Amino acid sequence: PPTVTATATKKQSGAATPTRTPTRTAAPASHTPSAPTNTALPPTNTRTPLPPTNTPLPSFLVTSVSVSARGGDYTGPCPVDGRYFDATITANGPGTVTYQWYMSTDGGPFIGTWNQTMNFISAGSQSTEFAAGTVLSSRSLTFELRVSSPNAISNQATMVVTCVP
To answer: pLDDT tens digits for 25-75?
Structure first.
């Protein structure tokens, strides 16, 4: 460790006043720097495995959803009625499906409807439809059918309405 020594200086009044003037003596070097080394770190796995669960997959599942715009795009006079979206839900067995229709106009946020249900007595497909209502002006309509139970699955279709005089 460094040492500190004190020295005395003489003031003009004639009295000596001790003054601390640090004098440091270096401690012997205990570490000699070495050239840097390039040490490769082992790769890390950033994925954390999920703990096993005892929750079985539901035996009743919706396996697919398809949505289409009936009649496709429309060009003609507006307002126009009778624009429908059709959906087909396919399930692997008997059970109840809960779903909602969602609509987006001109790429805006999706707005949902109320929950609806569809009962399957066996594996197969069932259809549903949604009326777009009266379209007053040119726009792009996207309808999405979202199944929430027994599993989450969805699909959507877009219809472009172009109003001409």
So the answer is: 444 444 444 454 555 545 544 565 656 666 666 699 999 999 999 999 999
- Compare 6 and 103 and report the one with higher pLDDT: 103
Instruction: Give the Cα separation of 10 and 127 in Å (integer).
Output: 108
Structure-derived torsion over alpha carbons of residues 46, 50, 51, 56, reported in degrees to the nearest 10: -170
Structure tokens at 10: 């003489």
pLDDT: which is higher, 133 or 46 = 133
Structure token pair of residue 59:
């035996």
18-44 core/surface letters (b: 16 or more CB in 10 A; e: else): eeeeeeeeeeeeeeeeeeeeeeeeeee
Assess contact for 102 and 144: CB atoms under 8 A. yes
What's the length of the chain?
Answer: 165
d(CA 129, CA 109): 21
